[in-house]
Amino acid sequence: MLRMRLSVKQKIAAVVLAVSAPALVTAPALAQPMGLPNIGAASGSDLSPALERALGDLIIASGRRDPTYVHDAEINQYLNDMAKRLSRYAVSHAVHVDVFGVLDPRFNAFALPGGYIGINTGLIVQADSESEVAGVMAHEIAHVTQRHIARGLTQQKQSEMIALASVAAALLAALAGGVNVASGIAAFGQAAAIDQQLGYSRDAEREADRVGFHMLSKAGYDPNGLQEMFAKLMNSAQFNMAGSGGNAYFSTHPLSIERMTDMQNRTQLLDNNRFPSSDAFWYVRARALVLQTVERHDVTRIIDKLQDEGRRLKGAQRSAAWLALSELASQRRQYVDAKRFLDYARQGVKDSPYIERQAAALALAQDNAASALSIARSALTRWPNHRALAEIQARALQKLGRHAEAAKFLEQQIKKWPSESPVLYQLLAVNLADSKQPAQARRAMADYYVLTGALPSAMAQLQQAREMTQDFHEQSRIDAQIRSLQARMAQEKSVLEKFSS
């Protein structure tokens, strides 16, 4: 065991020399919450923040090709807005947090190196309030800010270090080309499995509870959120206090009566006013339910449940149930029912980008691209930062054959969201190709492949683009991209070889 730890330290020391520190999001300086257990300084970990972030970047880029990775713009944008709101009150002076959805009906959340956090759709669906989701997320963010993941990676037994080496080996295989998809998926799955194997110590869990509680209350969420979610799961027949009752989250985040009591005592010291969930929470929760409902027997059960909620509940919660029914009907091409449910969703609530997104999507599904464009364009003037609306507007323009206009619009959206939505680059590539700009289309597709971790494919696209143009200035720009990508691939190979050896 000692020999393994020493070799890991030597590897890390070598890798640190090869990796430059990325820019980090700066959070306001805040006082450390009182009563934290002493588990050492966050800077005491062997795995430097720069190296941890570099490894996380490699894993998540490949993970975007995994079939369980949620690409839905509304879910991921909502989760990241929540993470930004919480992280603003993190005790760490510098924290990078990037949250993504995972298509899985089970209650779970996990963290990858570098501040990447996966939230299962099942966790969102099982939550009865926005603060419950925020509570779990705050707890996960606390594991990131307190560097529990980095410590766990450098202090585990030999089997976990072998698992980490297998992640690096899979990413190296993808970097070499030829097996991009299979290796990327393998690396993402293995990285998530390592998180399940780490198992945080009781002191780490208590520290995450208290740091998370601080963020939750300061960010304006109900401070009872985390303990309410835990209490609900504790009462589940599938869960017991030992953490062996079939719930993956609690097998890695051991819960105890002491932790529950501590959280309850802290909430009693605060104002007991309730914090209503935002309208966005109910719409995103319904969207998550639709995405994870794929089996035929599940569809019938979920439709009955949503129809009951639509008749029984009020406000945005009722509207979200009808909106989910509209989406499910649209998936089955039952467009008359989808329109009727959409009309029900509009009743008794204020205007919403989620409702307008479904209206535009429904028009597009019925090959009425002109109507979809009109709806999306009007809605974007009111909610200009709603990415799902931007994607639909681009698809509507493409379907109408207005490819040059679509390309110009997509370039504007990419300036706003340069790394959040790889699909924008993919759409841009298609529209550039259809507007007779093949070299620029290959460059856009290269950007898509870079964001999804397929660097050899990106290199191939750039080399094709180079051959398609005789313009000296365009060739010079492509040459610069190729050199930059070659340098990045060499650096990533150096990092991964240190981990995999």
UniProtKB/TrEMBL annotation:
Organism: Orrella daihaiensis
GO molecular function: metallopeptidase activity
TM stretches of this protein: none
InterPro entries found in the cross-reference section: Mito/Outer_Membr_Metalloprot, Peptidase_M48, TPR-like_helical_dom_sf
Keyword Cell membrane: no
SUPFAM superfamilies: TPR-like
Signal peptide feature range: 1-31
Assigned keywords, A-Z: Hydrolase, Metal-binding, Metalloprotease, Protease, Signal, Zinc
Full protein name: M48 family metalloprotease
Reported cofactor(s): Zn(2+)
Chain ranges of the Peptidase M48 domain: 76-266
